[in-house]
């Protein structure tokens, strides 16, 4: 995961990277895209955690065992980078079901964060009616984008997630890499920037505007909200947000077991 290591790998594999699916998969695992000029990082280097207010979430509970929220990732001691809000909805309709889009995160403006300030999806449609949803950003305005999709009624209609203020906190070096399986449901996997915590194979979809691979922006784990839903992406999965800074287009999709 260092430039020296990447350069050695690229030199060893050489031109075969473009034709070798196995080689490309290995680079994807560490968020690296080989180019004619070396390599391109597919995620922002800076790693941050989304910190929810105390009492907003219930401790994780799996297979009848209730966990705890005392892992350091839930309240990292690092620097606060920004504040924002989570949950709620916006007036813009979903392209698939026609209902109001759901807000995932709204970040107060901060130059240190290389991700979209306003992130939305449709909880009813993403991963069910459509595997991936694209959105175009113009300042604070967000609207559906991408290829044309068939309008349909969602199989699992969902209400907005409860709104709450959040903090975005610098992640300690110990927690810049997190594995989904070994976290065992005890770690905070709600992250902004840094390497994504893939459940399945890495997935950096092409931007629908320029066809360049989109970069990782943030992720949201399944959340057990106190007084609200136990929101599972599929079956206890993670929702990923990717971003094309050139076209100001974001996309959301999830993976689960």
Strand-helix topology:
Layout: H1 3-13, H2 21-29, E1 32-35, E2 38-41, E3 47-51, E4 61-62, E5 65-66, E6 80-86, E7 89-93, E8 100-107, E9 118-121, E10 133-138, E11 141-145, E12 164-170, H3 180-183, E13 191-193, E14 215-221, E15 223-224, E16 230-231, E17 238-244, E18 249-255
Antiparallel strand pairs: 1-2, 3-12, 3-13, 4-5, 6-8, 6-12, 7-8, 8-9, 10-11, 10-18, 13-14, 14-17, 15-16, 17-18
Major sheet summary line: 12 strands, antiparallel
The gross shape turns out to be: globular
Which spans of ≥5 residues are poorly predicted at pLDDT below 50?
none
Count of beta strands: 18
Order of helices and strands: HHEEEEEEEEEEEEHEEEEEE
First-last Cα distance: 26 Å
Beta-sheet strand percentage?
A: 25-35%
Which structural class do you get from the secondary structure elements? Answer: mainly beta
Helix content: under 10%
Mean pLDDT: 91
Rounded to the nearest angstrom, the radius of gyration is 18 Å
């Amino acid at each position: 995961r260092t430039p020296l290591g990447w350069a050695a790998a690229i030199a060893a594999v050489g031109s075969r990277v473009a034709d070798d699916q196995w080689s490309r998969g290995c680079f994807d695992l560490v968020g690296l895209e080989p180019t004619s000029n070396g390599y391109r990082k597919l995620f922002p280097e800076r790693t941050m955690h989304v910190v929810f207010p105390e009492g907003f979430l219930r401790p994780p509970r799996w297979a009848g065992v209730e966990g705890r929220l005392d892992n350091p990732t839930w309240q990292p001691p690092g620097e606060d980078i920004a504040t924002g809000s989570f949950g709620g909805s916006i007036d813009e309709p979903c392209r698939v079901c026609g209902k109001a889009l759901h807000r995932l995160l709204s970040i107060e403006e901060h130059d240190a964060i290389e991700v979209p300030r306003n992130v939305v999806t449709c909880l009813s449609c993403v991963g069910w009616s459509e595997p991936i949803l694209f959105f175009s950003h113009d300042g604070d305005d967000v609207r559906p984008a991408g290829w044309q999709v068939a309008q349909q009624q969602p199989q699992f209609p969902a209400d907005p997630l409860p709104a709450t203020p959040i903090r975005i906190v610098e992640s300690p070096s110990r927690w810049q890499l997190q594995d989904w399986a070994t976290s065992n449901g005890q770690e905070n996997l709600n992250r902004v920037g840094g390497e994504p915590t893939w459940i399945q194979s890495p997935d950096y979809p092409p931007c629908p505007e320029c066809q360049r691979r989109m970069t990782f922006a943030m992720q949201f784990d399944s959340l057990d909200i106190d007084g609200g839903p136990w929101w599972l992406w599929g079956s206890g999965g993670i929702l990923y947000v990717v971003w094309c800074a050139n076209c100001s287009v974001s996309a959301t999709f999830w993976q689960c077991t």
